[in-house]
Amino acid sequence: MTFDLITPVTVGDLTFDVRMLGPEDGDPVILLHGFPENSLSWSSVAARLADTGLRVIAPDQRGYSPGARPTDVDAYATTVLAGDIIDLADALGIDTFHLVGHDWGAAVSWVVAAAHPRRLRTLTAVSVPHLAAYGAALSRDADQQARGAYIGLLRQAGKAEDLLLEDGAKRLRAMYGGIVTAAQADSYIGPLSEPDALTAALNWYRAMRSDLGALSAVSVPTTYVWSDQDVAIARAGAEQCGRFVEADYRFVELAGISHWIPEEAPDSLAEAILVRIGT
Description:
Layout: E1 6-11, E2 14-21, E3 28-32, H1 43-50, E4 55-59, H2 78-91, E5 97-102, H3 104-115, E6 120-126, H4 131-140, H5 142-147, H6 150-154, H7 159-174, H8 182-192, H9 197-206, E7 222-227, H10 235-240, E8 249-254, H11 261-264, H12 266-277
Parallel strand pairs: 3-4, 3-5, 5-6, 6-7, 7-8
Antiparallel strand pairs: 1-2, 2-4
Helix pairs in contact: 1-12, 2-3
């Protein structure tokens, strides 16, 4: 089985596209992608994890899977997105699992860990710190406020879609900062260019509520991976992340690496994940 192969997994009235790799009897690791990406962002990391005998499961999340694309903005609240991950695990017959999330996938992972700690063996959050740490930085740190200014645009229905998709999705491609290859960018932007797909992905931002920062501390063994060249996440929130983990915690800082850690630094990220899983 290759990571390119998609397995449809039905949860209620939604069907998620899921990529899997590694032995079927391996310990399960669920990988959650960010924006503007999809499960293919994990290709290099997934191969490294599967080579160690882990069972890798990477869904195209709500809005990114054509069969799981409701139109209501409230259908993309973080609690709903987190519920999808538990429901997917249930549908696959998985009781407990390791969870890894990057960018928005990290945000969802923090909510899963807070709400369903008994389902997780370990958590590896990439780029986005615990939401209480991020929320505090966003409200008080000028650097984080400047880095997060783009969120206001993405929450503007219609205007954001038009700007991001015009001129061959020039602005979407620019978000990758030249780090993601053209072929990789095509594999993300192609699906997002389908009717209603980008709106669904942007609904994650539009469903954000001001109480995100009220998320409780997590009690799951956790590694947080942050890169010092991340244009979206400032150091202030990253360094406060550990305050909201009431379990074994490791902070891994990657020097000279951009926000796009799964694509740019798959070896370092896979190593951090494997060290956490081996705890």
